[in-house]
Amino acid sequence: MGVNAASALSLGEGSTPLVPARRLQERFGVELHLKCDGLNPTGSFKDRGMVVAVERAAEAGARAVVCASTGNTAASAAAYAARAGLEAIVLTPAGATATAKRAQARAAGARLLEVKGSFDDALRLCRELGQREGFVLVNSLNPDRIEGQKTVVVEILEQLGTAPGLIALPFGGGGNVSAVAAGLAEAGASSRIVVGQAAERATTWASAIRIGEPAHAAHVAELVADGGVEVVTLGEDELRRAWQLLSHEEGVFCEPASAAGIAALEHLPDLEGTTVVCIVTGHGLKDAGAVDDGESQTVEATLEAVLEAIG
Predict the structure, then answer these.
(1) Which of the listed residues 141, 173, 207 is the one where a domain comes to its end?
(2) Residue 160 lies in a domain
(3) How many domains, the chain?
(4) Which structural domain range is residue 102 located in?
(5) Residues forming beta bridges with residue 68, ordered by sequence position
(6) Is 289 helix (H, G, I), strand (E, B) or coil?
(7) Residues 119 and 164 in one domain
């Protein structure tokens, strides 16, 4: 049963698998587990907090929820708004959102507007719109989102049976980082948190973390200063290599940004024997366009032709 199953809007979010990464753990010299949050209902971790935020918006009498998005927030907000009977208004940076994510939002009936600007411009407009009567902002600046997203920590502790030495995850806007830190604090767990961010934040190929000015930057900086979080900055080649490793070595197909936690591990020299959980935040079908499927090879319908093709 999902952690938010008591909600009338629940789609079964939560209770995502914690998968041992047996091949990759040899590479890093750690006990490595993958928390596959791309298996939430709309394909990303966003559902954990969105179900809470939308339900509370409905209870408060909102007519619409609004969000800025690089894609996953849009899909999640649209789905839960549909279940609540609310309008979803989504602002995305023009031309910067994966097709599958836009399709999810449109399929659920969201009003999707592309802003001639960056994600930061879209978020600014949504914050202004959220100040108007009847509209509720459901980006991670809404504390209800963080409340719901903390549940990933509860699940990790239950599934692992103990607190891991390290939790690694991507750093885009910083909402999930904040939620994980809050969840660990509430559980009295002292796990280190390491987050991977793109060096080319505003233009990175990993579109889900293509955020130039993280909304939670100040809070993440406080967590870093307190020693609870370490931020690792990653090049585009590092992100791509980690994304390919997850699929090639473990069979876990995620969207590019979701591999940032794995990429960050490459920068940590003192992990030998540590129990590590990497939160894989979004499914690969969210951004299938990132895959270069190359030229398909056509063969005759004979076994001989197949054997010749495969060498």
Answers:
(1) 141
(2) yes
(3) 2
(4) 46-141
(5) 91
(6) helix
(7) no
Q: Domain check: are 123 and 171 in the same one?
A: no
CATH number for the domain including 22? 3.40.50.1100
Place of tokens 């080649």: 237
DSSP for 2-47, written as a single string:
-TTTTSTT--S-----EEE-HHHHHHHTSEEEEEEGGGSTTSBTHH
pTM for this prediction: 0.92
**CA 308: distance to chain centroid?**
42
Q: Is 195 in contact with 171 (CB distance < 8 Å)?
A: yes
| Strand 31-36 to 275-280 pairing | parallel
CA angle 62, 65, 71 (to 5 degrees): 170
Instruction: Tell me if residue 174 falls in helix, strand or coil.
Output: coil
Place of tokens 């069979």: 251
Task: Show pLDDT as tens, one digit a residue, over the chain (311 residues).
Answer: 344 555 899 999 999 999 999 999 999 999 999 999 999 999 999 999 999 999 999 999 999 999 999 889 999 999 999 999 999 999 998 887 888 888 999 999 999 999 999 989 999 999 999 999 999 999 999 999 999 999 999 999 999 999 999 999 999 999 999 999 999 999 999 999 999 999 999 999 999 999 999 999 999 999 999 999 999 999 999 999 999 999 999 999 999 999 999 999 999 988 999 999 999 999 999 998 888 877 778 999 999 999 999 98
Q: In what order do the strands lie in the sheet with 31-36?
A: 18-20, 31-36, 275-280, 166-170, 192-198, 229-234
Give the three-state DSSP class for 87: strand
